[in-house]
Amino acid sequence: MSDSEPVSEQDIARLQAELQDARAALGDFAYAVSHDLRASLRHIMSYASLLREEAGPVLPGEALAYLETIHGASRTLGQQIDGLMAWSLLDRTELRVRELDAGALIAEAQAQLGELCAGRRIDWRIQEGLPVLFGDPALLRQLFVHLLSNALKFTRGRAVAEISVQAQGVPEGWVTYTVEDNGVGFDPVRQHKLFHVFQRLHGSSQFEGLGLGLALSRKIVERHGGSIRAEGAPDAGCRVSFTLLRVA
């Protein structure tokens, strides 16, 4: 097919089927890998615990520190496996699409994140009369949890965290939602790492997490046929926007 030839409906259908097959294969691979890794991880943690119980009293302090490092790394690996399984399962989840009240989804996400808000001053700026969304309620609620959690995390050092959710209609029945914060932001040069599994733009000593929230957000949006992007600058906050159909 030359560059000048139009793409036929059959070609589009074939490419869509190939993309779907590739996504399914990737999901199967991630699920199989994460499932098999659990058995090895259980052995590592079990034998490290046995070694500490059996030989702990006679081991030098340095050796005990090594065992603690093994346990810490194993716990992190376990969390990564859980995240990888969650990421792979998104391709297997059957979408139950219906009309949704975006304001209610956001309120449910805020309630779920109550512990992250405790003792903090947060200026929530949620647009009134947000347009409806069409999608799977569980997944879109999870999407808002990931995005609001991200905003809460990276505004933790602010005296007052400012977090807003706005929506704007775009042509042809689409709507764009934007979650914006006044947090630490990020270096735009490293923006290409966003939305990929286990990619972090800040060190683990600064902020906890595995680099999964935005990767899961991307997959949820793409499962609904939409797109997602982010803008930010160092110490100048972050804007994450996603676009979805506003009609069934």
CATH class of the largest domain: Alpha Beta
Report the radius of gyration as a whole number of Å.
22 Å
Strand content: 15-25%
Mean pLDDT equals 84
- Unreliable residue runs: none
Essential attributes:
Heat Shock Protein 90, two-stranded antiparallel sheet, 5-stranded mixed beta sheet, Helix Hairpins, 248 residues, single chain, 2 domains, 48% helix
Structural overview:
It is a single chain. This protein is an alpha+beta fold. The protein has two domains: 9-89, Helix Hairpins; 98-245, Histidine kinase-like ATPase, C-terminal domain (Heat Shock Protein 90). The chain is built from six helices and seven strands; from the N terminus they run ααβααββαββαββ. The protein has helices at residues 9-55, 61-89, 102-112, 114-117, 137-154, 213-223, and strands at residues 98-100, 122-126, 133-135, 161-170, 174-181, 227-232, 238-245. The strands form two sheets. Strands 2-4-5-7-6 form a five-stranded mixed sheet, covered by helices on one side. Strand 4 (161-170) and strand 5 form a beta hairpin. The radius of gyration is 22 Å and the shape is globular. The model has no long low-confidence stretch (mean pLDDT 84).
Show the helix and strand layout.
Blueprint (H helix, E strand, L loop, with lengths): L8 H47 L5 H29 L8 E3 L1 H11 L1 H4 L4 E5 L6 E3 L1 H18 L6 E10 L3 E8 L31 H11 L3 E6 L5 E8 L3
Parallel strand pairs: 2-4
Antiparallel strand pairs: 1-3, 4-5, 5-7, 6-7
Helix pairs in contact: 1-2, 3-5, 5-6
